Amino acid sequence: MYLSAGYNQQTMNGPPKTNLSDLYSDRKHAVMSNAVEEQTESGRSFDTSPFVISLSVITVLVVGLFLMAYTGYRVGTSQNRVVAATTMASEVALQYDLASKDIDMGQYKLAIERLEFVVNTAPDYPGVTDLLDKTRDKVDSTAMPIIASTKVVIVRQDQMKSAERLRIISTAYANQEWQNVISNIDMLKASSTDYDHDVVDGILFVALRNRGIQRIEIGNLELGLADLEHAEQITQLDQVANQRRRWASLYQSASTFWNINWQIVIDNLYILHQIAPNFRDTTSKLWTARTLYGETLLKEEKYCLAEEQFAFALDLKQEESLKVKLMESIADCDNEDDVSTE
Q: Are residues 160 and 190 in contact, defined by beta-carbon separation less than 8 angstroms?
């Protein structure tokens, strides 16, 4: 059998070979041909194996899923950075706009506080450095020393994880340390978006609301009103907060027009005295305003109007010198009436 397998078709049909070397050569050629055919058949069988096909498909899917996951991670990270940057940019723009309004209203200290935040957060913000310098020039150096640098150094632990920052906020909130709560929330918003925005905004509202009321009660009306304004941008203020804001606004308006327009001063203090007579020095301030306005009217020879101011002032507090001025204004008012009737 082995010899027959060693012959090919040409050997069978051609002339017989008796030479041993020729026979050996033909047999070797036939064996090699058979080996090549077997390898070819084996390769075909292997290539079409269902196992190999399945394995290839699974490999492609795994690689594809890995690439998709990695791409999603990169996109998500990029989006988080964009959101954080956008949030801080909005806060910077808001503080700059509020500072401009504060300057227009003459609230320079509050404006400086806002502008310092903008300079520290975004030093390249258009016009902020010049505006900060000009605002500082308007403030008395004895009331607020001007430092050499236009930047305020604020230590920001940007590498702190959101969970750690939230634990600090929670502790400060429990201890009613509203300044720490607000500062840490500002840093949290500037460095991350990995937190519950509704919860954090709710905490920020309470902190701003309470700090605003505290500032108003100790006489820092400008900053207190700014806190309440910021809190109201998150959600509506409650009745107590609105009440304190009303009191502070009336008192501040009276202070703004002091020695400039006595009628505006008295109108604001009169309303405040009706709703909150014990708010700061409202009663004594109203008495002083009516007295000074009455004296001004006396100098202007408006005796009847002066009489009204002295009479109201005496209703608030009795004073002998004021009684004398009242009697003087009454007499001059009567003479003024007699002259007008003639």
A: no
DSSP state of 182: H
Q: Look up residue 219 and give its DSSP letter.
A: T
Question: Distance between CA atoms of 33 and 114, rounded to whole angstroms?
Answer: 91
pTM greater than 0.70: no
CA distance 249 to 246: 5
Burial class (CB in 10 A: 0-12, 13-18, 19+), 32: exposed
Radius of gyration over every alpha carbon of the chain, rounded to an integer in angstroms: 45
Q: Tell me the pLDDT of the chain (342 aa) as tens digits.
A: 333 333 344 444 444 444 444 444 444 444 444 444 544 444 444 444 666 566 666 776 666 665 665 565 455 545 545 444 555 677 778 778 877 877 877 777 777 877 877 787 788 888 888 888 888 887 644 344 433 333 443 444 445 688 888 999 999 999 999 999 999 998 888 887 888 889 999 999 999 999 999 999 999 999 999 999 999 999 999 999 999 999 999 999 999 999 999 999 999 999 999 999 999 999 999 999 999 999 999 999 999 999 999 999 999 999 898 899 899 889 888 776 555 554
